[in-house]
Amino acid sequence: MDVASPPRIKYRSMPVQVILTILTLGIYGLYWFYQTAEEMQDATGDHSGSPALWIVLIFVPFGAFFSFYFYSELYEKFSRDRFNRWLLWVIWLIFSPAVWFIVQTELNHRSTWH
User: Fold this and answer.
1) N or C: which end of the chain has fewer CB within 10 A?
2) Is 5 inside a domain boundary?
3) 66-80 pLDDT tens trace
4) pTM of the model
5) For the residues 83-91, what does the mean pLDDT come to?
6) What is the tally of structural domains in the chain?
7) How far is it, in rounded angstroms, from Cα 85 to Cα 2?
């Protein structure tokens, strides 16, 4: 009998992430976006979107709106409180570091390995 292993969600330190983002001139932020989307997809079982495509969309004019929406939709499915996708999307457009904090805090609470 094949027992599926629980999804692996990595604990990430916020101060270390800020430092990495500064040192890599923002590239770590793209890595974080991709990795956390993959982790949330594994946790929810929803693999309908492609985090790699969402990264590409960030660089296309107006594509970031769609990318952030798809990510917000995935987070709504993942969060225990069912955080509203539209609210998260608007926060992303106004002050994206707040989304980083909101999402990473939830991920850290549900992390399975450090």
Assistant:
1) N
2) no
3) 999 999 999 999 998
4) 0.88
5) 94
6) 1
7) 34
